[in-house]
User: Fold these one by one.
Assistant:
Number 1:
Amino acid sequence: MKMTGQCLCGAVRFTAEDVPHEIGACHCGQCRRWASGPYFAVRAGRVSFEGEDNLGRYRSSDWAERGFCKQCGSNLFYRMIEEDRYMMAVGSFDDQSGFELARQVFIDQKPGFYAFAQETKTSTGDDFFARYAPAKGGR
Amino acid sequence: MTERSGGCLCGAVRFTAEVGEEFTACHCDMCRRWGGGPGMGIHGHAVHFEGAENIARYRSSDWAERGFCRICGSSLFYKMFEDEKYELILGALDDQEGLVMTRQIYIDQKPGHYEFANKTSTLTGAEVWALYAAPDRE
């Protein structure tokens, strides 16, 4: 499904293709430090941006960068560089209906002081690295 | 209250603050659009920043601004202009031991695709306004 979204101030808008209903939440320490809480993301196909001058990209690891609006600070995406895969922030989409929380990743880094009521598939940090960065040990 | 330290992902902004143990989760449209998911914030008093020149502040409403690192985009705080205290983003704290979610606000703006299992008090947007709004805000 093609979906649109934007940051809080509107300086960056995007159109994402092939957006599924299933979303994931990441509990890793990096995401929780970067975003305002656990990071809700959806894996998109092709993404195009308007206002790209306002888009900041921070290379947070060897394999990924994090995109944000330089005007308002909205956390917009986590992008896997080698795959050129955007994990778009769910809250940025104009239409919030129709999403379903299907999985939680880095569940081993989730602090005990919150939990979701939804039962979902879960995976750990090791599962992530085994899948995406088998040669790498760090973050 | 204890003094805790924290900072953004890239380390350009660091802070110390006096914080308690109770924190709030906010489900409002603005926080979810800004922060990639429901925001978790904790009151911070006597907040001191290092690398303050790397903090960008976005005036998101007439009464508040949102601070973030201009280098890495980390969400740092929500601050009402007329208040000395910061609502610090929980995830920015280095030590998150002993914290408890006691309140959820803007529960009426929460989308249906998630909910917390935590038992807390909850406030709608209107109830938050009634609690905090000065008479001349309406």
Number 2:
Amino acid sequence: MSQTVITKKFMYVNRKAPYGTVYALESLEVALIAAAFDQEVSLAFLDDGVYQLMRGQAPEGIGMKNFSPAYHALGDYDITSLYVERESLVERGLSEADIMPITWEDEGDNWIEKPSIHICSRKEMSTLFAMQDVIFSF
Amino acid sequence: MKFTIMINEGPYQHQASDSALQFTRAALAQGHEIFRVFFYHDGVNNANSLSRPPRDDRQLQKEWATLAEAHGLDLVVCTAAAQRRGIIDADEATRKGLNMSNLNNGFRISGLGQLIEGSIQSDRTVVFGD
């Protein structure tokens, strides 16, 4: 008996800072586990969520484990699009230079390393949301 | 329409669970199907059988269990989130040599895959959280 394979566009919207609450960590756990289901997954970062991608995280001083290296593994899980809202960066006095250089290796293009991070406007983010089948918001 | 509902906040602390209950009741009343209700983050505390709110207040765990029984709903509590927050079913209690469990009737503990599968199979996923 054949089974229809359904592929949907999943977006994980991250709105909270990486430390101080558990939302960022547990959101990442969902994304990594969901990778086994072969869906089209992308991540969006807005409001304080942009802090999740900041370079140089060193939370050991507050007794927390630095889980930012896990974002670099997303490419291996076929999550290759991380959308970061420009207005959220600007509102926080941040720029693209503050963001970790997250990349993925394109198997179909000689394993060339390509950037996963895409900075987009609030308006573009809205358009991206409208294209999704499933949106999880953390 | 087929719905998967996600609840990301604990009972009483936040209105998420109340809103989700009301939405679920309304959807069922209109003839929609609730494929699965998935509890994540502090939402797993909606399945804590030890909750004892004041007598004149609503009892959320019980309201979910009652609704689930009346409509055959699948209430799933995320295992990773549950372990962090101390929500344990009878099997886990036995495995860990504990003499008690606190998963309320009507709920089951399972993996995040249940959420993803629910979203794949449903027409809409609705998230209640902060």
